[in-house]
Amino acid sequence: MCLAIGAAACAPRLTKLPSGPGTPSPDFAQALVDARAACERVQSLTAEIAVTGSVAGQRTRAHLVAGFAPAAGRIEAVAPFGAPLFIFVASGADGTLYFPREDRVVEHGRPAELLEAVAGVPLASRDLLRTMTGCAIPEPLGSAQAIGENWRTSAGEGGAKIYLRRETSSAPWRLVAVFHPGAGAQWSWRADYDAFQNGLPTVIRLVSAERDRFNIQLMLSQIETNVPLGPDTFRVEVPSTAERIGVEQLRRSGSVAPAKTRSR
Asked: Residue 140, preceding bond cis, omega within 30 degrees?
């Protein structure tokens, strides 16, 4: 998500996926239903998120406090002292990104454009909750394959592909890797899911096919699900004194947050 530049951080380690030929998987549809059972029940999620990795070639570390609901989200980058580094809110097609310390704001932007401008990850409002709970998959999918007893995979257009895994034949299926479609046969970005608790991932790795765009790990803690999040959660009060800027100006700044918020 939106990040603040900080101390050096190692790139996240991706899931080692199986290779070799598979066989047709008649049980894939049921395995996918089982893998998504927990996340399908989530109508809201709040969490603290520790972020490490790199964005636009710059090593990154941030501590976020976030809340997500269907087609809505709020992300704050908290600082050790004082005001947040930024506040991002989105509801439907409307998004706002506010930098309280700089008194600068992008208002009424497309949420996916705002997130892509500051973090590389192009997530629309409708994708936030599903991505954070491991429920977002590209559709349609086909060519379901079994690779051994404990792996299932299915591919779609544009390089789209998902992988399901279970620890043993009696363990539950988990969605562990999603390749989101891109141009031609090349996938655009990948989401890996790990360290499941109550059927939901607590470690998420987001990696672009173009590695310089983003390569980040999200570690979730203090997770609560299905708590009421009213409309005010996804609004931010912006002072009239704040400088209004556009998405292109944000992109041209070349940083995730204005320069004065960078760690010294």
From this structure: yes
